Amino acid sequence: MKATNLYAPTLRQTPADAEIVSHQLMLRAGMMRKSANGMYNFLPLGWRTIRKIEQIIREEMDAAGGQEMCMPILQPAEYWQESGRWAAYGAEMMRMQDRHGHDYCLGPTHEEMITALVRDEVRSYKQLPLLLYQIQDKFRDERRPRFGLMRSREFIMKDLYSFDKDVEGMNLSYQKMYDAYDAIFTRCGLEFRPVEADNGAIGGGHSHEFTVLADAGESSIACCTKCDYAASDEKAELAAVAAPDEEMLELEKVATPGTNTIDSLVEFLGVPIEKTIKAVAYETEQDELVLVFVRGDHDVNEIKVLHQLEGALELRMAEEEAIRAVGGCPGFMSPIGIKEGTRILVDSTVMNMKNAVSGANEVDFHYKNVNPSRDFKDVVVTDLRLVREGDPCPRCGAPMKMTRGIEVGQVFALGTKYSAAMGATFLDEQGKEKPFVMGCYGIGVGRTMAAAIEQNNDEHGIVWPRSIAPFEVVVVPINAKNEEQLRYAEGVYGELKQAGIDVLLDDRPERAGVKFKDCDLIGYPVRIAIGPKALEEGTIEVKVRKSGEMFLYKRETYLDEVRKLLESL
Question: Which tens digit of pLDDT belongs to each residue from 359-383?
């Protein structure tokens, strides 16, 4: 490819609406352009990287036994109604009707479609295991599309679905995909961690997110400082914190004027924040009130709360009227005195507290010497808090550290969630009908591209890992108007191309400085400059983008040296 034939409109200024580095650099490097909020055109350079990521994915999926196929993006509502997700999926689903009034959606994912397909075609255990995948656009009506490809409304995803005869088989398929993902992201040149994760709207059993470590990541990850335990903040397991051993004192109601926050309460009473109990009131989409209690210095993990509420999909802060209707008082709440039958969830750490302070369900009053194990009745006790820096690892007890990450892939053990709901069964060895045991496995292709940039950039632009760079090498004649230099550069370009190296010739009649700046901005791993020394001495200048190292090679040996440099990247 020659740059004079390449559509790559680079920008010198950063677009005002580009918030994070990957978004800024993809726009500036001429890799994509915005078409609408959360929707982007991939230009040739960006599309080359997308295709390289896809090819790595294909190779590893095929090696793990996956078979590529393609399913419709437009999905009939009937399949989603069978699984129970048509109403449950929420506002992110893009829904529409055809001219006959039939309901459809633009696929945000394809569990229902693949389950229906296999249900109608596969009848015997002898046809299992089955691993089917596609690489295709998905659509989700994000409330706030932002950060370029990180959270968009249309995105490219690889989704594979496994079908097995039993849980043991599903676990084998799960491990195959886990290992394949490890290989994929390693080949993409990324620093990543597999972390235990929540299944969210997909449902099912256990799950892992593959997370690229980057400051711009939306995911917060807890990593053990000693063992290999890692989990998203939504999923991280937390043991109850033991309280100091002290004698239980009598419950005492005290006046605490103007102390409707934990901070003001701590200041007024002069007690440690670890001795206070925080109340948070929610309502579900079914208008059910839920009161949640955690230690004063802890935060509520709303995902863990949702897991305690069967059928609930989202939480909102409760209205004051709903709180007062059950005997609660906003800003001064505790489980003591709440109307019987109210849903009350208490974090396990709170139940260990001794002589604590909580609300008295009366304006400007609190209880002192609250002992939850004695004073709280008809409550559900479980892990409800959000992990924080220094919390003990649930595996080994060592302190955990918090870091940021970008989720690029996730593997789910679905079990029979979809097959049972949709009547997808097969005949086992005894001729008995059983539901398929399933798994699903997704990779965000565009997110992987963006994550690579977030992790590999400097003040000059992108620093691509060689495996997913739009071109591995760029050849730059310093003065393309000099016919001898251009011919020499074309000769080098031809030799590299003949050697199977993915190479671009920047033959544009621009100043050398402009072309060099574009090389750094776009992030080609190796730059070869052809100048007067090449003509006079047969000396070729080679620069490695990642390290900035410069090398001078003779024409007779440069090709082998460039190969070695590429192999080292």
Answer: 999 999 999 999 999 999 999 999 9
Neighbours of 273 (CB within 10 A): 15
The values of phi and psi at residue 200, to 5°, are 60, -140
Tokens of residue 527, six digits: 């730059």
3-state secondary structure of 405: strand
Structural domains of the chain ordered from first start? 12-236+401-454 (3.30.930.10), 252-382 (3.90.960.10), 471-568 (3.40.50.800)
Tokens linked to 568: 């080292």
Q: What is the pLDDT of residues 19-56, one digit of tens each?
A: 899 999 999 999 999 999 999 999 999 999 999 999 99
Task: Look up tokens 């590893």; give the residue.
Answer: 60
Beta bridge partners of 195: 209
294 phi and psi, to 5 degrees?
-130, 165
In sequence order, what E strands does 152-229 have? 154-164, 192-196, 207-213, 219-224
| Model confidence, pTM | 0.87
Phi, psi of 201 (to 5 degrees): -70, -15
5 Rama class: left (phi>0) / alpha (psi -120 to 50) / beta: alpha
pLDDT at position 314: 87
Report how far residue 537's alpha carbon sits from residue 530's, in angstroms, rounded to the nearest whole number.
11
pLDDT at 203 over 80: no
The DSSP-derived string for 146-170 is BTGGGB-SEEEEEEEEEEESSHHHH
Q: In sequence order, what DSSP letters do the residues of 260-325 get, joined into one string? A: -SHHHHHHHHT--GGGBEEEEEEEETT--EEEEEEETT--B-HHHHHHTSTT---EEEPPHHHHHH
Average pLDDT over residues 428-449: 97
d(CA 369, CA 530): 81
In Å, what is the CA distance from 392 to each residue of 190, 225, 227, 236, 396? 28, 10, 11, 11, 8
| Phi/psi of residue 76, nearest 5 degrees | -70, 145
